[in-house]
Amino acid sequence: MNLFSRYDGSVAFLAAHDDDWARLIDLVGPCRHDPKAAREPYEALVRAIAYQQLTAKAGDAIVGRLKGLFDNSDFPTPEDLIAAEFDQLRTCGFSASKIATIKAIARGTLDGLVPTRDIAAAMTGEALIDRMTGIKGIGRWTVEMLLMYSLERMDILPADDFGVREGYRVLKSLPEQPKPRDLREISKAWSPHRTVAAWYLWRIPRERGNVLK
Question: Of 95, 144, 183, 208, which is the most buried if we count CB atoms within 10 A?
Fold first, then answer.
């Protein structure tokens, strides 16, 4: 069985939604969303901060340098991050604000504010968002990445994400991006397949203009 065949129903649903979605899916091809279900929320949150507002290549480099600071595990522990010197983390490519946030995540993990994966799996998305955004520097988008890529939730639409909003603008040939609150309302029609919808919106080719028409 193809690893990605689990998305076939979602892809068919979106393709049947309207002609714009059908053209987009035909252009991009099958959904290749690839969550990392084995990761604990702690690691997923730290990784999300590393990639925030950066290209995937830049985020990969930062995470690689971070892991290179510690040779005692596949990923630094909360204790590692708390003990790490500011200048060490700066050499990885983290900004000062991101360093403060990943240290807050580490402390929140040790304090029990960041739940284990088993506990998180039993919580609703909104409950996790409410809980995690209590950590300084953690916003809704960061928790939505955790929900999509670590907890494999299938109905998450990160409406604050620039790429998602820009993707929808191109999809519908709009003069400007929709506001996050408006896109959340629009996206209700894509439920319960909004994670796959976000995956496709992220992949709309923009550099050549709207190629969907």
Answer: 144
pLDDT in tens, 52-85: 877 778 889 999 999 999 876 789 999 999 999 9
C-alpha–C-alpha distance, residues 204 and 210, integer Å: 9
Question: Degrees (nearest 5) of the Cα angle 66, 137, 94?
Answer: 25
Buried b (16+ CB within 10 A) or exposed e, 38-55: ebbbbbbbbbbbbbbeee
CA distances from 58 to 55, 120, 162 (A): 5, 28, 17
Active site residue 161: yes
The single-letter DSSP state of residue 135 is S
